[in-house]
Design brief:
The chain is of the alpha+beta class and 375 residues long. The chain folds into 2 domains: 89 residues, no CATH class; 214 residues, MetI-like (MetI-like fold, Orthogonal Bundle). The protein contains 15 helices and 8 strands.
């Protein structure tokens, strides 16, 4: 096939393609966005079943494993003949005391080997509240030997397992918060742009007032006003509401601008002359025409929600223990002693950075692909 024929075929395919097909074809060309999509998908799979990826019970305390260092996972062993073969295992640590300072010292016992098995059995956990199971992605063959891939905190709790469990809370706060912001922003922005006049004036003044408020002090003030004795579920719900109260204004302004430009378009006028109701015109004709832009906007808003929850929880004004989120976990690394004793307590921060960067790459790719006709 010649270059001219190939170009003609591509043009024909583009001419009959739907908007979502054009967005997907443009999105696939964005390599960073595709990588971000893979990472985000992995994070949300973990968020759905964190217990499957965890090794130890995230809430279980072990006084003899305080500040237990990360264990090295070995993948190959050597038999008596000197041949190497695949066998995941760890060397357990022994707790000793420094003879002068009496500080706890963990020494690796290289003579002992504890096998690590895929899809092994461990503690029981619930899958979306539907059923319980004890199958994990990997587990040790000897349950009496601890497996701390990323070490343990001051109470001997597994940092890796707590990061897995915290993924569910931190990422779901972003999703729920953005969903609430989306509903408020689309409804108020759509009403403002579709009807105009005094309605538009009132809503836009409210939007400008919300945008003029300093976000972080408002979050801090509202979070500090929450009673500390509320149940974890109530705290979770209220934190998402607080994050949504200031997140809808920017989206409402974007939706309003799109409605102002679309309400005089021919397809909208035709639908109105055909007797379509206002609700059908808005939700059946106007919103779908720029839904890709809305998806790109909310994808870029999720990282801001995650960072906001992490910041509030890190400062002690967000979610509170025993609730596990990335911000709650980072509170363990607030003082110099913790940093000097157990630098691995910073691992939840790397999870935050990875999730935010992946979501930003994904949002950038969606934003660039949202208008494929400009390519």
């Amino acid at each position: 096939m010649s270059a001219t024929q190939a170009a003609a075929t591509d043009n024909k395919r583009l001419a009959v393609a739907s908007q979502w097909q054009l967005v997907w074809w443009a999105f696939k060309k964005h390599h960073l966005a595709m990588a971000g999509l893979v990472v985000v998908a992995i994070f949300y799979v973990i968020a759905v079943v964190p217990g499957f990826f965890a090794v130890n019970d995230p809430a279980r305390q072990n006084a003899r494993a305080a500040y237990y260092p990360p264990q090295e996972l070995h993948f190959f062993d050597t038999d008596e003949a000197g041949n190497r073969y695949f066998r995941p295992f760890i060397h357990p640590y022994q707790l000793r005391r420094d003879p002068q300072t009496l500080a706890a010292i963990y020494v690796e016992d290289s003579r002992r080997k504890v096998d690590v098995t895929l899809f092994g059995r461990g503690y029981k956990y619930s899958v979306l509240g539907l059923f319980e199971t004890d199958i994990h992605l990997f587990a040790v063959s000897d349950p009496s030997q601890p497996l701390f891939i990323l070490g343990a905190d001051r109470l001997g709790r597994c940092v890796y397992s707590r990061i897995m469990q915290g993924t569910q809370i931190s990422l779901s706060v972003g999703l729920v918060g953005v969903f609430l912001s989306l509903v408020i922003g689309v409804v108020l922005g759509g009403i403002s742009g579709y009807y105009g006049g005094r309605t538009d004036f009132v809503i836009q003044r409210a939007v400008e007032f919300i945008l003029s408020l300093p976000t972080i002090p408002i979050w801090l003030a509202l979070a500090a006003a929450l009673p500390q004795d509320w149940p974890a579920t109530t705290q979770y719900f209220m934190i998402t509401v607080i994050l949504s109260l200031t997140g809808w204004a920017q989206l409402a302004r974007v939706v309003r601008g799109r409605f102002l430009s679309l309400r005089t378009e021919e397809f909208v006028v035709a639908a109105r002359l055909d007797g379509a109701s206002e609700g059908r015109i808005i939700f059946r004709h106007m919103l779908p025409s720029f839904m890709s832009h809305i998806i790109a906007s909310i994808t870029l808003a999720i990282p801001a929600m995650i960072l906001a929850e992490t910041s509030l929880s890190f400062l002690g004004l967000g979610l509170q223990p025993p609730t596990i989120s990335w911000g709650v976990l980072l509170r363990e690394a607030q003082n110099i002693r913790s940093i000097a004793t157990a630098p691995w307590l910073f691992w939840p921060g790397f999870a935050v950075v990875a999730a935010v960067m992946a979501l930003n790459f994904l949002g950038d790719g969606l934003r660039d692909a949202a208008d494929p006709y400009n390519k």
